[in-house]
# Entry
Amino acid sequence: MSGVRDRLDPDEVERMFDRIAGPYDRMNRLMTAGLDRRWRALAARETGVGRGATVLDVCCGTGDLALELARLVGSAGAVTGLDFSAEMLARAEAKTAGPDAARVEWIRGDATAMPFADSSFAALTIAFGLRNLPDADAGLRELARVVRPGGRVVCLEITKPQGEVLGRFYRAWFDRGVPALGKVLDRGGAYSYLPASVRRFPAPAELGESFYRAGLVNVRYRTLAGGIVALHVGEVAP
# Structure
């Protein structure tokens, strides 16, 4: 993994996701053995919202989490999916959540300077996107800004397992297997950047402190799948 960059400029991130939009869903299923769908459904439930709520999914990618939210809030609710990759949004727009789900509005925009007024949403989710922002603390402050007092910011992110046995498997698969598989689908190195970016990203406890620094309260987190994914929840102070 030597020589692999663990940070990219925002324009490089945008180009990378435009480039891998086609195989993105397939790679997610392969990398996680299909568990990513379950994680997104859990993240949607952790928002605590019900029917009729207005919710935002940031770095929405191909839309799977936004569509989970749409099913949760129902036809009386409203969901917005925001991403700066036009190719990802094109694939999200091609999906549907069913007749009883909320309509999703797909918006191309920058997660670090979102085109929404303060306190616009009842809750917000971000899945596997915070790690790609140039400054996680500043990104979390921007996320918290658009959520109403008492609402939740929910974050799913890849992390590093602590156990020795799972750690060995993780390193074999995620650090070596995923980049090798990714080369078949993307010669640009996106799936080598992925494990490198995870290695430099804060551990779950440290990320929890970032939530507090962003002004969020009642912060909590849990790890999933033996510690390879962390689910953080923070609330906007009343």
